[in-house]
Write a structure and sequence with these properties.
The protein has about 240 residues and is α/β, with parallel strands linked by helices. The chain has 9 helices and 9 strands. It has a single domain, classed as Alpha-Beta Barrel (TIM Barrel). Strands 1, 2, 3, 4, 5, 6, 7, 8 and 9 form a 9-stranded mixed sheet that branches. Helix 1 runs parallel beside helix 3 and helix 8 crosses helix 9. The chain is globular. The N and C termini lie close together (about 10 Å). Bound molecules: SN-glycerol-3-phosphate and magnesium ion. SN-glycerol-3-phosphate binds next to strand 2. It comes from Pediococcus ethanolidurans. InterPro entries: GP_PDE_dom (IPR030395), PLC-like_Pdiesterase_TIM-brl (IPR017946).
Length: about 240
């Protein structure tokens, strides 16, 4: 089976991350999956962004959790990347999901709950309620760096797939291995390369696999997936290795 190519925050390498243009580009580039990050606004809307604050990727400052949807929508989330994207808004989860439906996306939708730094009260219930009321043509994988979030999501969605995220600093993945709720691992690629630890029944999808060398490493070992900022380039390299 081909290693799945999952666009990290959309096609983050060539579009402003976690915006509708980035997700559209990932679909155009033929990504098998899309990874994105969800937070919650002050007025409880589900907001797509990577950081807990808007400082790095918009023209505003402050925490998402301290702003209303209307305040967040007034910010520019494209200008940091280049003039061509000036005026791009921060999307909501609903806007991203509706775009994927409109574009007939049928791959993996990896929604990362950004609950490791701020434990947005009720975010698990809110994401589950929203996703479960949609008729989705794609498969959902929920992931988080925060194990309690995954446990809550599993209780709310017992049939959905879950992935445990872990960082380079994670000493060993034994605690994830023992957790029967989580059969998918989404580790830092540097962790994978340092530990050379693979289990055949674990679906391994490292991030962020951007260099040609890392891509070749993952494709040669037929990992289940890679999470990359450059899905288009990854497709060319996969073609050369896996056919
Ligand atoms: O889900 C994989 C990856 O996105 C995790 O790290 O910080 O890019 O959200 P981060
Ligand atoms: Mg992420």
């Amino acid at each position: 089976m081909l290693t799945k190519i999952i666009a990290h925050r959309g096609s983050k390498g060539i579009r402003p991350e976690n915006t509708l243009p980035a997700f559209e580009k990932a679909i155009e580039e033929g990504a098998d999956g899309i990874e994105t990050d969800v937070h919650m606004s002050k007025d409880k809307h589900l907001i797509i962004m990577h950081d807990e604050t808007v400082d790095r990727t918009t023209n505003g400052t402050g925490r998402i959790f301290d702003k209303t949807l209307a305040e967040l929508k007034r910010l520019d989330a494209g200008g940091y990347f280049g003039y061509d994207y000036l005026g791009t808004q921060i999307p909501t989860l609903d806007e991203v999901v509706q775009l994927l439906i409109k574009k007939h996306f049928t791959g993996l939708f990896n929604l990362e709950l950004k609950t490791d730094k701020i434990q947005y009260p009720g975010i698990e219930e809110s994401v589950s309620a929203y996703m479960n009321q949609q008729t989705l043509p794609f498969k959902i994988i929920y992931s988080s760096f925060h194990p309690q979030s995954l446990i809550k999501m599993h209780a709310l969605n017992p049939t959905v797939e879950f992935a445990s995220l872990f960082k380079l600093q994670t000493k060993f993945a034994r605690k994830f291995y023992r957790n029967q709720l989580v059969k998918d691992w989404h580790p830092d690629i540097r962790w994978v390369r340092a530990h050379r630890f693979f289990l055949p029944h674990v679906q391994l999808r490292p991030w962020t696999v951007n260099s040609t060398e890392d891509m070749r490493y993952c494709f040669k070992r037929h990992f289940d997936g890679i999470i990359t900022d450059y899905p288009g380039r990854a497709g060319i390299i996969r073609q050369a290795i896996q056919g």
